[in-house]
Amino acid sequence: MQKSFIIIIVVAFGLVGGLYSLPKVVVSNEKKKLEQSSQESPAPMANRDKKTSSETQENPETHGVALSPEQQGVIEKLRSNYLKSSDTKVKFKAADELIAKFVAYTRYDSAAYYAEEVAKIEPSEKNLMKAGNLYYEAFTYSLQAEKTTVLGEKAREIFTKVLAKNPENLLAKTNMAMTYVSTQTPMQGILMLREVIAKEPDYEPALFSLGVLSIRSNQFGKAVERFKQILKNNPSNSKAALNLGYCLAELDRKDEAQAILEKVLANSTDPQEKSAANEILSKLK
To answer: 136 in helix, strand or coil?
Structure first.
């Protein structure tokens, strides 16, 4: 396979009803093309003391595609409900509705801002994790270095608070570790992931993250081991299967790659995964 074939792996873990969502995978031939078409990069968060993300104007330069007038109207109505609420329970409910809508519109940084506001009022582990995971989601989707740095710092700040409350929160530690990888101290993140694996060898989020890091460093053999370990314990993890197929293709193990990718096509219900699998298969021909 050509090395110009770029795989962008977006590792996004979020707590939904106590469960984490496994990483999303997007495959593109050209990063530039992805940057131009992306609708999921977050809004700028610099100078937040002057202008919060809730006040940031939606525009194509910061989010790929601006919110439609209808979407903007929905957001403004929900924001108004949140701001005018004085009762804590009512305010939290309004915040949840606003956060959910921002997530639906792939404005993860804005969703994270309001989740953090809730966590400031009630800094429970659950509320902090929600805010941290949303900042992490925004971090993983960001394609601009400056925004990525700020979002990663915000995620680490909140995950640090989570771990102060519960040092055994492996998801917080895993996600926090991944924010270090793009800093000047990437080994700090790798060591944190190894600590997680040492504590729980089959912990899926950490195994997946280590697989991702192996791909980024072109260590496809190591990545294969990680994704196979995940599939041994969870054969239905189509995202791990997709990445396994990609790694096998890079190692020129075409028959194995084809077999696993065809399983992804047969079993996955995610259009992005199916599209990615088809694209990799087309490269094998």
So the answer is: helix
pTM of the model: 0.78
Rounded to whole angstroms, the Cα distance separating 165 from 76 reads 34
Query: Are 215 and 239 contacting, i.e. CB atoms less than 8 angstroms apart?
Result: no
Altogether, the residues listed in the chain come to a count of 285
> What would the two tokens of residue 174 be?
């895993």
Which stretch of DSSP H or E encloses residue 282?
A: helix 271-284
For 275, what's the count of Cα atoms within 13 Å in the CB-facing half-sphere?
10
Given a contact cutoff of 8 angstroms between Cβ atoms, the answer to whether 162 and 116 are in contact is no
Amino acid at 225: E
Query: pLDDT per residue over 143-192, tens digit each?
Result: 788 999 999 999 999 999 999 999 999 999 999 999 998 888 999 999 99
At residue 4, the 3 state secondary structure works out as coil
**Angstrom distance (rounded) from CA 203 to CA 229:** 10
Residue 70 pLDDT exceeds 70: yes
- Is the pLDDT assigned to residue 8 strictly greater than 50? no
Give, rounded to a whole angstrom, the gap between the first and last alpha carbons of the chain: 10
**What are the strands, taking DSSP E only, across the chain?**
6-10, 15-16, 19-20, 24-28
Residues sharing a CB contact under 8 Å with residue 225, sequence separation 6 or more, in sequence order: none
Cβ-contact 111, 102 below 8 angstroms: yes
